[in-house]
Please model this.
Amino acid sequence: MENYLLFPYSSEAEELSGKLGFSRTFFLDRDLVLVKGNFKEILKGCSEARGKQIVYVAENEEMLRLVVEKSPVNIILGMEKIFSKDSLHHPKAGLNQVICKLAAEKGKKFGFSFSAILNCKDPSRIMHRIGFNLGLCKKYKVKFIFSNFSKSFWEMRSAADLEAVRTVLEQI
Model:
């Protein structure tokens, strides 16, 4: 299992990641580039990536679809945080069948962050949305990554813990 960390490289974090059971660790600035903003800023950040994986944090539904359709972004995070409230009949989890079909066609990966569950006000809502999105990803054969995506050293969890949480979320 691979570990994605959203903070700069440190030998201590890489060593801890190995002890926690991860086969490979990706760090921000060394292996990953985080892009945000409007579409022009995203494209500019993508052009400066030079061989690194490009990670986009979703801000709204329109930008999410635009990034999936027309940008060279590799991993998309934070879809479950786009909407503040759920619909009466289903969770507004950020993904839908149209975005999933486009992502499968374009070879994009959706990232699901354990750090998002740790740092939110309502973990049950985020977990339900992640479970719903995982179901859509499986149904439409979209590749996904469930990893730490932690922003600090102390948010890291073991590979076995992440695998257990992912298994539970897939049951939702």
Notes: Strands lie at 2-5, 24-27, 32-35, 53-57, 75-77, 109-113, 143-147. Residues 2-171 form a domain with the TIM Barrel fold (CATH 3.20.20.140). The longest strand covers residues 53-57.
